[in-house]
Amino acid sequence: RAKADGRGTFCFFRDEMAATVEARRILELDLRKALANEEFELFYQPLVNLKSGKITTCEALLRWNHPVRGTVSPIDIIPVAEDMGLIVDLGRWILRRACMECMKWPEGVSVAVNFSPQQFHQRDVLSEIRYALEVSGLPAHRLEIEITESSLLRNTQLTHDILSQLHALGVRISLDDFGTGYSSLSYLHNFPMQKVKIDRSFLEGIDSDRPLTLLRGVARLSADLGMAVVVEGIETNEQLELISADGTVTEGQGYLFSRPVPAVRVRQLLNASHGRRIPDDQIALVSS
Ligand code: C2E
Ligand code: MG
Ligand code: MG
Ligand code: MG
Fold first, then answer.
1. Would you place residue 278 in the very low, low, confident or very high pLDDT band (cuts 50, 70, 90)?
2. Is the CB of 73 under 6 A from ligand 1?
3. What pTM did the predictor assign?
4. Other beta carbons less than 10 A from residue 159's beta carbon
5. What is the rounded distance in angstroms from the CA atom of residue 215 to the CA atom of residue 93?
6. What is the pLDDT of residues 27-60, one digit of tens each?
7. Do 273 and 55 meet the contact criterion of CB atoms below 8 Å apart?
8. What are the backbone dihedrals phi and psi of residue 229, each rounded to the nearest 5 degrees, phi first?
9. Which residues is 59 bridged to in the sheet?
10. Does 116 sit in the ligand 1 pocket, CB within 6 Å?
11. Cα dist from 172 to 105, 165, 271, whole Å
């Protein structure tokens, strides 16, 4: 194949590949140091009950304050950390930090933590979670674990067992980004999960009939199966009105309510609102 493409082309690709490999090697080296150097930070984004306007949960979202590159997105960090086998250490840090942070919030507010498939399928995931609750003192019912459909694909029986044990422990499971993956509707009733987060791609073109019907159908189905329903990525009042209209969607999350903000800021927000509706001036504050 290289021969057919001609020597020049081959060299071009080889150099480019070498550059990519080198960049990747540097990223991995940096990532290894980042935990020890305390370059990771958790931001938090509220989930709001659509009826009461109260913040029910804040989702922890990873940020990497790289000394040279600046803020690095979790989308660039998590897959590399998975490949490197660093996800277990990183995930442990995220979980414990998030549980400790939640202890500083009003009692009615929970914390949601994202688990990547590898992290979810690590051998001692249950002891990891139990231990994080123990060291932080956080009651299990204030922890929500967000998994994606890809975590449900492998080893179905084992996955089912883990979810059941988490449920027995009192931890809630939330199915994140629903509708982006394989979207087998059977997941919704085959696995014990308490919440579905409908992906924000469902909001695209929501002002026309078909997408709205689709979103409402998925929401209705999830609600009928006894799950709480969240819509992610709400950015406008029009979107909020459309999804609130039939009362099926229980919570909303998105820039309209608040962007993900640093821990100090979410603490201020929660204490200012004392579990009440986010005051309008605070919405302006956190979404700016
Ligand atoms: P996710 O769990 O679905 O989180 C929601 C993402 O959508 C966040 O991006 C959030 O900032 C963004 N978002 C929230 N509201 C809006 C909105 O109204 N409009 C738009 N356009 N975007 C909105 P972020 O923080 O960059 O995280 C991206 C993904 O990285 C997350 O998607 C999650 O899959 C992953 N991730 C983030 N933190 C962690 C973590 O601690 N552990 C693991 N395993 N994955 C994480
Ligand atoms: Mg999430
Ligand atoms: Mg999500
Ligand atoms: Mg998403």
1. low
2. yes
3. 0.91
4. 19
5. 35
6. 899 999 999 999 999 999 999 999 999 999 999 9
7. yes
8. -120, 125
9. 45, 112
10. yes
11. 18, 11, 24
Structure tokens, 121: 């399928």
Pocket of ligand 1 contains residue 127 by CB under 6 Å: no
How many whole angstroms separate alpha carbon 46 and alpha carbon 254?
Answer: 8
Pocket perturbation via mutation, ligand 1, pick of 47, 59, 61, 283 by most ligand atoms within 8 A of CB: 61
Query: 271 in ligand 1 pocket by Cβ < 6 Å?
Result: no
Among candidate residues 131, 120, 59, the one with its CA nearest the CA of residue 91: 120
Helix (H) or strand (E) holding 176: strand 172-178
Q: Which residue blocks in the chain are alpha helix, DSSP H? A: 2-5, 7-36, 74-84, 87-102, 117-120, 125-136, 156-169, 186-190, 209-224, 237-244, 263-273, 280-287
d(CA 99, CA 211): 36
Distance in angstroms (rounded) separating the CA atoms of residues 36 and 217: 46
pLDDT class of 160 with cuts at 50, 70, 90: very high
Q: Which two tokens stand for residue 262?
A: 């640093």
Mean pLDDT to the nearest integer, 192-202: 94
d(CA 57, CA 45): 8
* pLDDT level of residue 23 (50, 70, 90 thresholds): confident
**pLDDT of 184 over the 70 cut:** yes
CB 27 within 8 A of CB 80: yes
Share of the chain above pLDDT 70, in %: 89
Q: How far is CA 140 from CA 95, 118, 192, 258, in A?
A: 13, 22, 16, 26
Residue with the smallest CA separation from ligand 1 atom 42 is 114
Q: Euclidean distance between the first and final Cα of the chain, in Å?
A: 52
Please give the full DSSP string across 70-127, using - where no structure is assigned.
EEE-HHHHHHHHHHHT-HHHHHHHHHHHHHHHHTTS-TT-EEEEE--HHHHTSTTHHH
